[in-house]
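Journal club side-thread
Mid-discussion, someone asked how the predicted structure for our own chain would compare to the paper's figures. Pasting it here so we can look after the session.
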Amino acid sequence: MIRLPHFSYLAAGTVADACAWLGEAPGETMLLAGGTDLLPNMKRRQQTPRVVVGLRGVRDMHGVHRNGELRIGAMTSLTDLVRDGQLRAECRGLWQAASQVATPHLRNMATVGGNLCLDTRCTYYDQSQEWRQAINYCMKKDGDTCWVATSSPKCLAVSSTDTAPMLQALGARVRMVSMRGDRVIDVADLFHNDGMAYLTREPDEILTDVLIPSQQDWRSAYWKLRRRGSFDLPVASAAVAAQFDGNRNVLDIRLVLGSVASRPLTITPVRDLLVGRPLTDDAIAAAADAAFPLGKPMDNTDYELIWRKKMIRPLVTYALREVRGDDVRDLRLKLARQLL
């Protein structure tokens, strides 16, 4: 049995309490949301905080609130999102992303904020301490070499969050709070393309809320590649949000690829290709072709990287067909083992 290291635990009742405790020693303190990511990492000694601040008792960080825009508390569980019928109608892509995270048991504990801040993953990093020690560790923890590409000057661990690509496609923002004040940034600005320094969140900041603008006239979809129909993290994903006019022409569109870099990757050329025209088969094929060269998966997760690369085209195609209104249930069932 792999045991947790020793640490002090503080249970916060308010955001102010959590910020104060985190601000005392941000380099030695970590935040505990659902614990589905942090606690296994602590057992493997990938993260060894001296102090852990629990956020479950912070009521202001729970729940889904509607007042023009959609505000989701960062401590809202993924199960709560999946059970929210109104959210399913408003932001189907986000509902699909949350529904495909891990298993029902883990979604009961896992939170929106925790999934957004999910640690990057890698075949050489997500191992026991003894395994990592045997290969002289890696750059992400205790070593100086990225074993994915030994000449790389930076860590190539991959972003494996499901909700981040979809929220980025939805144009969502997040609120960050510290003793210094609070700030609101786009989800797209929350991430660096660096496997180690993958978040722009400051060490003393807490992600408290996710803010989603009105999705009226928007459609969204999320497609995920993994080996099994549950539990597994994505090894490639495509998130699409599109706004249409009365003639079914695209007014605006965002396409984001997940798990092909150390951050969710917005495919900006797709907007120029599709805005002002209907989503015809030719337009969808052109968008998939534009996305293909920009997604550059590395050999650091399940499946061969060449095949993961090839799957970018069909993932983008399926997501665009779904927001167009096609019946893709058979394709969804074949790939995801779920209808969603």
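Post-session note: The chain has a mean pLDDT of 97.
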